[in-house]
Amino acid sequence: MSITPLMPVYPRCGVRPVRGEHCHLIDEDGTRYLDFASGIAVNLLGHSHEGLIGAIQKQAATLMHVSNLYGSPQGEKLAQELVDKTFADTVFFTNSGAEAVETAIKTARAYHQHQGDTTRYELITFANAFHGRTMATISASNQEKMHHGFSPLLAGFKYAEFDNLESAKALMGPHTAGFLVEPIQGEGGIRPASDEFMQGLRKLADENDLMLVLDEVQCGVARTGTLYAYEQYGIEPDILATAKGIGGGFPLGACLATEKAARGMTFGTHGSTYGGNPLAMAAGSAVMEAVANDEFLASVRDKGERLRSRLEQFIGNYPELFELVRGKGLMLGLKMKVESRPFFVHLRDNHQLLTVAAGDNTLRVLPPLVVGDAEIDEFFEKLSAGAASYEVPES
Ligand SMILES: *Cc1c(COP(=O)(O)O)cnc(C)c1O
């Protein structure tokens, strides 16, 4: 037998973390890594946050799971907090980002079909999007590498050019139910949509009674310096998917919606055994308590600006390697002039610096939001040493 016990769908590297301390990961043989990947924008409170650990420990010892057939004081508390701090009137909890996007897709379709309009089922999505790995969420992306071997795809998605309003407009028709978009593409290469684009989609949705669905699974939960990224675009969505950071490392996602958008989501239309269980709610509430306040959000914006300006200065020293810095808050990307993946491997293996490679030859810089000046200094030491010692591989 040659297949590994862990289904070999990930090209796993030699770093084998067994412990986390704030912004560092320590692997099996004791090597310390600076973690500017955060489990891909998940561990926003770092790896040993006392409040989060305490909340999970306490809840685990009290009540871990009950069925959604019972009332949920824990769920009501977190849902109320999200309702108070966002555009939303109602929340459905999931265990992952893909499930949150699935719920969002179902909500958008049901908005039309609940009224008896079965012709509007199509969502316009955008090139190089990433929405997850379920059948619906791979069908929502135009990336063929995620489709291969899994046909037939789910019907009902059309792909427009990202950040191109005319392209979205051109795909609108009698079957259009809405738009599904990441305000800042994550896997696609930390590419922020323009204000004009997001405001244009909002306007098209308003004029045509369509759902504007945002996938904020990666850019949401304080990552960009506001609780959700849409706040910076001067618009509100009808439906929003959130996950990754919201559990701070505990599996948790949610689909947020306005009352109007959720009109099709009535008794019996949707469900999840684990979704919103008391343990996940305790984790989510601890994260919200830490991040959903002006002081914390201002600190993310402040650190984001400092990190960004230092990155801009830094790339000036290596014009042959780096093209530009983009992103918002502490969701930053270095677009490279050479392939980003081998450089990311070099930083990891030779300089013990963890970042994430992304599309469009971009290196993702996603530190825990609790990152301090000392870790930012350490990051630049490692990055500078990494750039100075880098030999671009022959391709
Ligand atoms: C990670 C991600 C998802 C999928 O989340 P999972 O928890 O892996 O299912 C969906 N959308 C975006 C934008 C993501 O970054």
Automatic annotation (TrEMBL):
<dbReference type="InterPro" id="IPR050103">
    <property type="entry name" value="Class-III_PLP-dep_AT"/>
</dbReference>
<keyword id="KW-0808">Transferase</keyword>
<protein>
    <recommendedName>
        <fullName>Acetylornithine aminotransferase</fullName>
        <ecNumber>2.6.1.11</ecNumber>
    </recommendedName>
</protein>
<dbReference type="GO" id="GO:0003992">
    <property type="term" value="F:N2-acetyl-L-ornithine:2-oxoglutarate 5-aminotransferase activity"/>
</dbReference>
<dbReference type="InterPro" id="IPR004636">
    <property type="entry name" value="AcOrn/SuccOrn_fam"/>
</dbReference>
<feature type="binding site">
    <location>
        <begin position="97"/>
        <end position="98"/>
    </location>
    <ligand>
        <name>pyridoxal 5'-phosphate</name>
    </ligand>
</feature>
<dbReference type="Pfam" id="PF00202">
    <property type="entry name" value="Aminotran_3"/>
</dbReference>
<comment type="pathway">
    <text>Amino-acid biosynthesis; L-arginine biosynthesis; N(2)-acetyl-L-ornithine from L-glutamate: step 4/4.</text>
</comment>
<dbReference type="GO" id="GO:0042802">
    <property type="term" value="F:identical protein binding"/>
</dbReference>
<dbReference type="InterPro" id="IPR005814">
    <property type="entry name" value="Aminotrans_3"/>
</dbReference>
<dbReference type="InterPro" id="IPR049704">
    <property type="entry name" value="Aminotrans_3_PPA_site"/>
</dbReference>
<dbReference type="InterPro" id="IPR015421">
    <property type="entry name" value="PyrdxlP-dep_Trfase_major"/>
</dbReference>
<feature type="binding site">
    <location>
        <position position="273"/>
    </location>
    <ligand>
        <name>pyridoxal 5'-phosphate</name>
    </ligand>
</feature>
<feature type="binding site">
    <location>
        <position position="133"/>
    </location>
    <ligand>
        <name>N(2)-acetyl-L-ornithine</name>
    </ligand>
</feature>
<feature type="binding site">
    <location>
        <begin position="215"/>
        <end position="218"/>
    </location>
    <ligand>
        <name>pyridoxal 5'-phosphate</name>
    </ligand>
</feature>
<dbReference type="GO" id="GO:0006526">
    <property type="term" value="P:L-arginine biosynthetic process"/>
</dbReference>
<dbReference type="GO" id="GO:0005737">
    <property type="term" value="C:cytoplasm"/>
</dbReference>
<dbReference type="GO" id="GO:0030170">
    <property type="term" value="F:pyridoxal phosphate binding"/>
</dbReference>
<comment type="similarity">
    <text>Belongs to the class-III pyridoxal-phosphate-dependent aminotransferase family. ArgD subfamily.</text>
</comment>
<feature type="modified residue" description="N6-(pyridoxal phosphate)lysine">
    <location>
        <position position="244"/>
    </location>
</feature>
<dbReference type="InterPro" id="IPR015422">
    <property type="entry name" value="PyrdxlP-dep_Trfase_small"/>
</dbReference>
<keyword id="KW-0055">Arginine biosynthesis</keyword>
<keyword id="KW-0028">Amino-acid biosynthesis</keyword>
<keyword id="KW-0663">Pyridoxal phosphate</keyword>
<keyword id="KW-0032">Aminotransferase</keyword>
<keyword id="KW-0963">Cytoplasm</keyword>
<feature type="binding site">
    <location>
        <position position="272"/>
    </location>
    <ligand>
        <name>N(2)-acetyl-L-ornithine</name>
    </ligand>
</feature>
<dbReference type="InterPro" id="IPR015424">
    <property type="entry name" value="PyrdxlP-dep_Trfase"/>
</dbReference>
<feature type="binding site">
    <location>
        <position position="130"/>
    </location>
    <ligand>
        <name>pyridoxal 5'-phosphate</name>
    </ligand>
</feature>
<comment type="subunit">
    <text>Homodimer.</text>
</comment>
